[in-house]
Amino acid sequence: MLDADFFRRWMTVTAASVDREAERLTALDSPIGDADHGSNLQRGFTAVTAALEKETPDTPGGVLTLAGRQLISTVGGASGPLYGTLLRRTGKALGDAAEVSADQLAQALRAGVDAVMTLGGATPGDATMIDALVPAVDALGTSFSAARTAAEEGAVATTPMQARKGRASYVGERSIGHQDPGATSSALLVAALAEAAGE
Amino acid sequence: MSDARLVGIVLVSHSAEVASSVAAMAKGLAGGGPAVPVAPAGGTESGGLGTSAELIAAAAASVDRGAGVAVLADLGSAVLTVKALLAEGDELPERTRLVDAPFVEGAVAAVVTAASGADLAAVASAAAEAYTYRKV
């Protein structure tokens, strides 16, 4: 079973990984976006870890809804409402249980990913975070490490795709050949989940 | 207050200058009559390009006179942040609505319509109608 500490660890590991990879995320965002993805997420997850230290929510749902709220209010770019909605909706789906199973997390995360698709209007194949998250959620039934692999492969698979959403869609066919920054950061989030689970 | 029952308008742009300039232009073009509460929410809190949930929430609260708040947004994160705040439920005044409209033209239509004392639905549809005006 997964408790609030597990989810706190997931957020802390994500923050560390975003810190480490911020330059790469921004570099990926430079040719097709506005070169702020790394710094935006860094600011967001720094705020998430600070809020979790201050407020110490004691349920998995509480940790994720607080984290999502922080991302919406601090990121300043589209990744804020998108990742914020992902975590909040996942947190709300987990309710106020003190512990949740991996299956419950997989179901809740699917609700979160669905909410992101509704919010941003993206579907698989548009070269967005959805292309990493959907395969990850599908693989989560197997194991956390299978989800990590699926997310990483999903992110790499955005390279030949033409971006159809957001700033990158304005560059049209020139977005082909670039790995999507949002799919890349989504793979970091899923990898952090596997790391938090010790896989 | 003379504007006690007018719909409030919030203009959310990636740029503080764009949001405040469009607000000034819409108010100017609305001419005389009652002063519609219009608030810009542009850029990030640190003054950069982007979107601030805090600025949006503060702007919406400042224009709420009880008749509803129409929010117009420019691109990407501006639109997504408003939608995410609306989905939160308690971040924006009751009867706040994101209006599907072109930013500049929609803002002018919204402010002019709100000045006539129209309700939120009429303000929203006037702003949305601005999409139908083709330029060529």
Number of domains of chain A: 1
Order of helices and strands of chain B: EHEHEHEHH
CATH architecture level-2 label of chain B: 3-Layer(aba) Sandwich
Largest sheet of chain A: 2 strands, antiparallel
Count the beta strands of chain A: 2
Overall structural domain count of chain B: 1
What this model shows, in words?
The complex is a heterodimer of chains A (about 200) and B (about 140). Chain A has helices at about 5-30, 35-55, 60-75, 80-95, 100-120, 130-140, 145-155, 165-170, 180-195; strands at about 1-5, 100. Chain A has about 200 residues and is an all-alpha fold. A two-stranded antiparallel sheet of chain A has the order 1-2. In chain A, helix 1 (about 5-30) packs antiparallel against helix 2 (about 35-55), helix 1 runs parallel beside helix 3 and helix 7 packs antiparallel against helix 9. Chain A starts with a strand and ends with a helix. With about 140 residues, chain B is α/β, with parallel strands linked by helices. Chain B contains 5 helices and 4 strands. In chain B, helix 1 (about 15-30) crosses helix 4 (about 105-115) and helix 4 (about 105-115) runs antiparallel to helix 5 (about 120-130). The relative contact order of chain B is 0.21. The interface of A and B includes residues 34, 72 and 81 of A. Chain A: This is Dihydroxyacetone kinase subunit L. Chain A: Keywords: Kinase, Transferase. Chain A: InterPro entries: DhaK_L_YcgS (IPR012737), DhaL_dom (IPR004007), DhaL_dom_sf (IPR036117), Dihydroxyacetone_Kinase (IPR050861).
